[in-house]
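Appendix B.2, paired examples.
Example (i):
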Amino acid sequence: MSARKRISAEQRKENRKEVSFAVLKNVPSSPRKMRYVADMVRGMEVFRALGVLKFSNKDASGKIEKLLLSAIANWEQKNERKAETGELYIKTISVDEGASLKRLRPAPQGRGYRIRKRSNHVTIVVDTLKKEEQVQN
């Protein structure tokens, strides 16, 4: 590895230490269904978002709720204190496409129709509101 690459890799590592996030990979539902739930909570305060996810009747909301709890726990671990109401918010939430299982279903006249069983990856980044206000001032 060259020196330039090593320096940029170390900078990325340092930047990642300051950010609290959680990643969920290979969720067996389509990214479109998961993005619908992610759009409901994007930019919300975390405890309000947990309430929205708790009472949503979508299957994906349970998975995002569990992931959000993990992101909150990661933030608490890094900052060595408990999160207070109104302090944390969801900075970014992204849903990316994962691997697709390709299957064949029998069709008339000896044909086969392709079935794609999609999966997705979800990433949640939480941050404090105070840090954003200091940057703006």
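Example (ii):
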Amino acid sequence: MNTTSSVIIFRVCILLFVLVLIDLYSFRSIKTAFSGISSEKTRQVINWVYWSINIAFLCLTIYTLLKFDRHAGPGRGKIALVMALFVLLYVPKLILVVSLLLEDVYRLLRAAGVGLGKISTDRFSAIPYFEGRRKFFSQVGLMLAAIPFVSILYGVTKGKYNFKVHRVTLKFKDLPQAFDGLTITQLSDIHSGSFDDQEAVKRGVDLANEQKSDLIFFTGDLVNSLASEMEPWISDFKKLHAPMGIYSIFGNHDYGDYSTWDSAEEKLKNHNRLKEIHKELGFRLLLNENTRIEKNGYYLSLIGLENWGNGSFAKYGDMDKSMAGVPDDAFKILLSHDPSHWDAQTLHYPKHIHLTLAGHTHGMQFGVEIPGVKWSPVQYRYPRWAGLYEENGKRLYVNRGFGFIGFPGRVGIWPEVTVITLQKA
């Protein structure tokens, strides 16, 4: 067994150990909440169901990890099922765990107070150190846990195809007059390898076409890893239409880096096939290059950067190569998949880039977006994770993604079709 395999096995064992601890701790809340049921048989059935579900999930997880095929890459099959069950089972349990911890902290503090009282006075002599668990706290914890459980169940069955249109109007003083009122539909992170409902996907494509935008920009991650994942969906996405053209770039998943290949030639063949698919879809793929979009004698410069991500993400992008030949005074739109590139390079680039369009984060497919509240765990990794950002006169828009990967659902952060209108200030 090599070192890499040993490390993976060690991490899996740690993960399973933590999950079992969560199961055991949550079970205490289950027992307390249902302790009022008079029938011993009913209580045993509840206990049996709880442990049967959890043991079955842990067995499925172990089996899936042992049988995982790195050639196939991420996205579908048993891995997607395990991810769905993991989120469905353990996010609600974490709510239970928090409620139990709060009660245990109270019980511990009370025990300390009783202990001091026993030392200083006889009044506490008959009072037990630890108060028993209160059924009320466990029942409230279960009710709170039911909220994410139902939300996640919806997200896995319906929410992942609950397409939403986000509209934003951006004003620029130096926008060429001919482009005043220009409309752009942005799509990102299609992740075709995760799709499992062709009619739902068609609805998303139709929704994008219904916006009747002048241009469509796709900002990367057409597949999860394999070009073949897009084959069943070519006829659907070929229906995308924009009178001034459709332009695209690669995202981090479009290079085949998340699969194991038998040879470098096989990986290159997959990469080249994906380039051909962009052409078949009618997408003009920009690979560290730029082009002019012209109208009535005016133009704007569209720059397409290959993927560049902070941290461990691959850095195929080359800003200098992408910007070669772009005049300083041109109005510039940059397509750059990973929003971390905006902070790392775009903001401080010598040539002013008016608008950058990105994706990549998916809003983690999990969060809350309601009036006055915008939160997702992904914001602790990506400060620019969804929507519009502005700094030093430069704008960044981060699309929440069209598809999904890993967790086969969306909760609170719905798949997005962005419509951007440019206006001359």
